[in-house]
Specification:
The complex is a heterodimer.
Chain A (H helix, E strand, L loop, with lengths): L8 H16 L5 H33 L14 E11 L2 E10 H24 L6 H20 L3 H19 L6 H32 L4 H10 L6 H17 L8 H4 L5 H10 L4 H8 L1 H5 L2 H22 L5 H21 L3 H28 L12 H4 L1 H15 L5 H15 L4 H27 L15 H16 L5 H12 L10 H28 L3 H8 L1 H8 L4 H48 L7 H21 L9 H4 L1 H18 L1
Antiparallel strand pairs in A: 1-2
Helix pairs in contact in A: 1-2, 1-4, 2-3, 2-4, 3-4, 3-10, 3-15, 3-20, 4-5, 5-6, 5-10, 6-8, 8-11, 8-13, 10-15, 11-15, 13-14, 13-19, 14-15, 14-18, 14-19, 15-17, 15-18, 15-20, 15-21, 17-19, 17-20, 18-19, 18-22, 19-22, 23-24
Chain B lengths: L3 H4 L2 H21 L3 H26 L2 H32 L13
Helix pairs in contact in B: 2-3, 3-4
Classes of the chains: A mainly alpha, B mainly alpha.
């Protein structure tokens, strides 16, 4: 325990930052707020790096020459535990576990988190809620690190709910805007549905295994190697509901596009790089359960593939720069689910990491564009920005190439790994691969569309004030751009070998067929190239074509630009009936009639009793006196009728000992007197 | 020993006490003047004091006499506060008729 006590430090620093900025923030000078807010993730990052980074680097360098990765000299897990709950048979420890999986996540959370904190210094400079912003951001980091470090389901759930809270607070950060406040509520409520499933899953785990710790579950699974039960399937489906809520998968994705109401760095950190990947992390963390539940795993794959394609098609026609990125995030999360569904957990985490790099970069660059345009988010009003914002333009270009999947950028390697794993997956794997390929084409198209519309061509609006990008915003962009280029060079095989102790699939990452892998890579790159060419044709060479196409296919265009009317359908099926039920049944019948009636009844009883009793309180002194006398007379009468005062237990008069003692004293004093 | 114990029976003292008390009660209920009502209360207190003293003497008990001291003390305090209140009431309402001092009536 002692040598892992430093695990506490990782969540501790952001929590201290949250407390300091949250309680004192508005009174502290802005410079101090900045220092506290930025130092907190940096301190955590240093702890994570010193704990694990050294071994990661040494492992990477040691195998550069050896070609094949063997077992790494890392501890499987570092744990730190205290007793937390002891209720009857339920024992839950407060346990932090650091293994390869959580170490990778922590590097992303604190590393990308730190960069985004630095970026926020410039982006939020003029905001009156500066300290509040940083305290919420630190609170998010605290809960996210708790989520990732948690060694059992309950502690994970604490972090899970906590990041939901931080997300809610930050989406509704500009709560004066009605749309931001309701977007926050929407995110919170939709997440509740997912959390409900997650909670049911946790309860099922508890009744099935009798423990909530990941280690205990792994142990009891390994003792029953033949256990492939319906219970496990049900548990996994419940967990999937939770993951789908948090990671914005079908059918619970609706909150993420609206979450773009929050400040752009928040969208980058919470709604692209870290929090929304918690569902993927959770599935990877509990993959031992999913491995035993093929039906659930298959469902994960289907949900992921469907979401990837569905969100990508919506992204094709969105005109808000952040909404395009939001649907792109949903689509990429679908990719990760697809990878989890074909049991390629390391590929999923690999894509998670790469996605964290390039999607955070995309959002930050978009934030830089919005900042420069003075708050304008409509792509149709941008254009020609590459001269005015060179740093943003070049970093954005890197990110676009990375997400489109061109070698040697990061996205190529991770997307390739997922597509390869899907292709090799037994029945239906080819279909999943094909959906992934189409999605890759669409992704490439809408990203280059954004690129052309925002940066190239002629400016489409006369925005008077083009802010330059401050240094605090430019530096994170450049660092993330470097990561988006080089991140993928780790290679999926090295990465999955590193993750193997924590997230090894029961089917190992296939390595056998380099020719097939190369072929699939070429096909994927050709798809991305095709997407680029289409975008180039529509948005550079023949800019009148998109409008013509939209006019030619009004139904399809309207369907896409209205996001398949999903919000409207949910509103009609769920929200409106719920409102009606609340109005007519809960408000009118339950509240007004039953509860209100009861309250009126009680008030009426009190009222009538009061009217009767108030006659006593005449205010007339003599009537009071008469009642007093009558009462005294009644007591006397009662005493007379019930006999002697000895029947009463008045302690002073009744006690026979006193009586006798008195007699003796009488006699004695009588004798003394004579 | 005192002559009282032999000459006058205990019951006479109690009878006197009861008569005084009843007079107090009747005066309290019947009289309209606030000062008379107040004096009736004092009368009742003293009637009780008398019976306390009587019993204390009968049983050679000091506790009854202590009670009397307490009652007298409370009566003195009551007189001080009560008379002050009566003066205040008279200044405010120019009357001491009990029936007309009914501000607390609902």
């Amino acid at each position: 325990m002692t040598d892992s006590a430093h695990l506490w430090l990782i969540p501790l620093f952001p929590f201290l930052g949250f407390l300091l900025n949250g309680i004192l923030g508005s009174r502290l000078p802005r410079r101090l707020t900045t220092i506290v807010g930025v130092l907190a993730p940096l301190a955590s990052l240093v702890v994570v790096l010193s704990d694990f980074g050294a071994t990661v680097i040494s492992a990477a360098s040691s195998c550069r020459g050896c070609g094949q990765v063997t077992a790494l000299t890392l501890p499987d897990a570092e744990a730190l535990s205290y007793h937390w709950l002891n209720i009857g048979a339920l024992h839950v420890d407060f346990i932090f576990v650091l293994d390869q999986l959580s170490a990778v996540m922590l590097l992303i959370i604190t590393g990308v988190g730190f960069l985004i904190h630095v970026y926020s210094v410039g982006y939020m400079r003029d905001d009156p809620g500066y300290a509040r912003y940083f305290s919420f951001l630190n609170l998010f980091l605290f809960f996210m690190t708790v989520l990732v470090l948690a060694g059992n389901f309950l502690l994970m759930f604490v972090g899970w709910e906590g990041v939901g809270l931080a997300s809610y607070l930050l989406i509704g950060f500009w709560f004066q805007r009605d749309s931001a406040a309701s977007a926050g509520k929407k995110a919170f409520i939709v997440n509740r549905i997912g959390d409900f499933g997650f909670l049911i899953g946790i309860f099922l785990v508890l009744t099935t295994f009798g423990t909530l710790s990941f280690g205990g579950i792994a142990a009891s699974l390994s003792m029953n190697p033949a256990w492939h039960g319906t219970v496990l399937t049900v548990i996994c489906l419940c967990l999937l509901v939770g993951a789908a809520g948090k990671s914005a998968q079908l059918p619970l994705y609706v909150w993420l596009p609206d979450a773009m109401e929050g400040p752009t760095p928040v969208s980058a950190l919470i709604h692209a790089a870290t929090m929304v990947t918690a569902g993927v992390y959770m599935i990877a963390r509990t993959h031992l359960l999913f491995d035993r539940a093929p039906i659930a795993l298959w469902t994960v794959a289907i949900v992921g593939a469907a979401t990837a394609l569905f969100a990508a098609t919506i992204a094709l026609v969105q005109n808000d720069i952040k909404r395009v990125l939001a649907y792109s995030t949903i689509s990429q999360l679908g990719y990760m689910f697809l990878a989890c569904g074909v049991a390629a957990y390391s590929a999923a985490i690999f894509h998670l990491v790469m996605h964290a790099f390039f999607k955070a970069l995309l959002f930050l660059a978009a934030g830089s564009v919005i900042h420069a345009m003075g708050g304008e988010q409509d792509l149709r009003k941008m254009g020609g920005l590459h001269k005015k914002l060179p740093v943003t333009f070049w970093t954005m270009t890197v990110a676009v190439f990375a997400i489109a999947g061109f070698p040697p950028f990061a996205g190529f390697f991770s997307k390739d790994a997922i597509l390869y794993a899907a292709f090799l997956d037994g029945t239906g794997g080819k279909l999943l691969w094909f959906i992934g390929l189409i999605t890759a084409l669409l992704t490439s198209f809408y990203m280059f569309r954004l690129w052309y519309m925002a940066f190239l061509g002629e400016p489409r609006s006369e925005s008077s004030h083009h802010h330059a990008t401050p240094k605090s915003m430019a530096v994170p962009l450049v660092i993330l751009a470097v990561l988006s280029v080089c991140g993928g060079w780790i290679g999926i095989h090295r990465f999955s070998a590193y993750l193997a102790p924590a997230a090894a699939a029961h089917r190992p990452m296939p390595t056998g067929n380099p020719a097939l892998e190369a072929l699939l890579s070429i096909v994927a790159v050709l798809a991305a190239l095709e997407g680029w060419l289409i975008a180039d044709k529509y948005y550079r060479r023949k800019t009148e074509r998109p409008a013509q196409l939209a006019a030619a296919l009004p139904f399809g265009y309207k369907l896409l630009s209205n996001k398949y009317y999903v919000d409207e359908i949910y509103s009609a099926i769920i929200v409106k009936p719920l409102f009606a039920f609340s109005k007519f049944v809960l408000e009118w019948i339950v509240d007004t009639a039953i509860l209100g009636g009861l309250a009126w009844l009680l008030a009426g009883i009190a009222n009538i009793t009061g009217m009767i009793l108030q006659r006593w309180q005449s205010g007339n002194l003599r009537s009071y006196a008469a009642w007093l006398a009558a009462g005294a007379a009644a007591v006397l009468l009662f005493l007379l009728l019930t006999g002697s005062p000895h029947a009463w237990s008045l302690p002073f008069f009744h006690s026979e000992t006193i009586y006798k003692v008195s007699h003796i004293t009488v006699i004695q004093s009588g004798q003394a007197g004579h | 020993m005192s002559f009282l114990q032999h000459d006058v029976p205990l019951s006479w003292y109690l009878l006197l006490s009861a008569i005084l008390f009843s007079l107090g009660v009747v005066g309290f209920l019947v009289k309209r003047n606030l000062i008379t009502v107040f004096m009736s209360i004092e009368l009742m207190l003293n009637a009780v004091n008398l019976s306390f003293v009587t019993f204390a003497y009968q049983w050679h008990e000091v506790r009854g006499q202590i009670f009397v001291f307490f009652v007298m003390m409370v009566a003195a305090a009551e007189a001080a506060v009560g008379l002050a209140i009566i003066i205040a009431v008279f200044r405010a309402r120019s009357t001491l008729a009990v029936d007309r001092i009914d501000l607390m009536k609902l």
